[in-house]
Amino acid sequence: MLAIIGAMDEEIELLLGDLQGRQDLSYPGATLYRGQLDGVTVLLTRGGIGKVNAALTTAHLLAAGATRIIFTGVAGGVHPDLRVGDIVISTDCVQHDVDVTALGYELGTVPGESPAWAADETLRAAAVAAAGEVSGVRVIEGRVASGDQFIASPEGVRRLQTTFNAACAEMEGAAVAQVCAKAGVPFVIIRSVSDTADGSAGVDYREFMPQVARHAKAVVRGMLARL
Ligand code: ADE
Question: What residues does the Nucleoside phosphorylase domain cover (predicted)?
Fold first, then answer.
């Protein structure tokens, strides 16, 4: 079963409104919504903020029968070509806030775990094609860097570029990826750029969120048609 995690209520609301035959499933710390979107049975949920919430939600989705996971949300653009509104599709995910270098591990590597988790080729291709139909935005495929930090400085952006070759910064993707990898379940992370992570342009979320929510819905439905 395909599962969709939206970062925010606004994103979930539009998709939730379209969900047919909705059933609410209660899990500790998360409600999962099961139903049909465009005739496809899906699980839908709001993931909450940060890696712990993302890991918890992902584990619940797997327990409820998810076999493929799509995450949609916003991110800070790190790739220099990205502007507010553009879309990043994950090639892979890293945890930029993990530091066990004192014990000889590479920055970002959790001992005993992979240094990065690759997104699924089929989900990536469907996401790129679906995002390409959203007019007026650039779509970039690249590495998603996750950490329990909101990045808001030029130094922070440079660090993510030079150390991790990241395309964008957010707070959940790599946690979803790590849990999916343990279960052998394919995933892809889709992010709309809400800021450039350098503390410059303030984002008017009241204007931006409805646009992000519309894009998330369009990309998810475009993917459903292709999968
Ligand atoms: N989500 C949206 N913008 C972000 C940023 N600059 N850093 C981390 N997560 C984000």
Answer: 2-224
